[in-house]
């Protein structure tokens, strides 16, 4: 009985992991297409060296937005206005 339950849970976990992998691949493809279109890249001249340089440039210029915390007010800590 326990083996059956464990087997079913294992199958569910494998299915969920496969779905996660597929979603990650879909996002990777979509991101790649969006970047190629936005940067107006030519597939004919797009080589590994160019890809690595572009990724490096994007990483160095990307600043992620801080995640919002529901229990903390969203304000700029550097701007305190006195009245």
Main attributes?
83 residues; mainly alpha; 2 helices; elongated; disordered C terminus
Short overview:
The protein has 83 residues and is mostly helical.
Task: Give structural notes.
This protein is mostly helical and 83 residues long. It has a domain of 58 residues. The longest helix has 37 residues. It is elongated and about 60 Å long. The N and C termini lie far apart (71 Å). The C terminus is likely disordered.
Secondary-structure element pattern, one letter each: HH
Q: How many helix segments?
A: 2
Low-confidence stretches: 73-83
- List how many beta strands DSSP finds: 0
Structural class: mainly alpha
Straight-line distance between termini? 71 Å
The 3D shape can be described as elongated
Taking the sheet with the most strands, its summary is: none
> Which range does the strand content fall in?
under 5%
Compute the CA-based radius of gyration.
22 Å
Fraction of residues in helices? 55-70%
Mean pLDDT across all residues, rounded?
A: 83
Write the layout of secondary structure elements.
Elements: H1 2-38, H2 48-61
